[in-house]
Specification:
This protein is α/β, with parallel strands linked by helices and 255 residues long. It has 10 helices and 10 strands. It folds into 2 domains: 159 residues, 3-Layer(aba) Sandwich (Rossmann fold); 75 residues, SIR2/SIRT2 'Small Domain', CATH 3.30.1600.10. The N terminus is likely disordered.
Amino acid sequence: MTDVLGPSTSGAERLAELIGESGCTVALTGAGISVPSGIPDFRTPETGLWAKVDPMEVAHIEVFERDPARFWSYYRPRFHSLGDKRPNPAHEALAELERRGLLEGVITQNIDRLHCAAGSENVVEVHGSIETSSCTRCDAAYGIEEVEALFDAEGVAVCATCGGPVKPDVVLFGELLPESAMARAQRLAERAELMLCVGSSLAVHPVAGLPRLTLERGGRLAIVTKGPTPYDGEAELKLGGEMVEALAATLAELG
């Protein structure tokens, strides 16, 4: 592994070389890529989303089913906080790589919609998206801008059609990832000659197993993220500085 601690020119040059040499590059992104957009990650001490609240008490499927008011007391403000966030240059860099034909697709653990907003077209949102919410009784779907009108006096979102409970179309703790999304992600990982991991600790399974699929089929890894990952020793390149700068420098190297 070549370990580059920041977005140095040599690091960007090497990443550009790896992308240029690859016949199929796939990006895998986590919460870190959205931090420059003003969205906290999950586990950073003091600032992470789970630093002051136990996710099992607010974001578990059993909480949604047992105490929807408690669930929405957490998720309703989260909808408000995410609704006006915009893509940052790291999202835009991946979209530009796709436009240039240098990136096959993006697999993301994020629910914030920012890859799509940046212009990426082949996006696999393995944890779902806040873009829509659905009634768990009649399957009526509501866009994010429509959900606020569904809240009753208890602060619970209920279906305008049947009165059933409305749930965000995101994967909560205690739920399995959508089979179709994971199947797409696995196919991309298996085809990848290069997997570019951006802003992910690569510690949350089953998504954390996707780089292993790439390696087992002879592909290579390039990691752009702060902090260690379980794959650092097997990566061709590790850039541990600011990902926005690193990806911008890589685009510049690609010309």
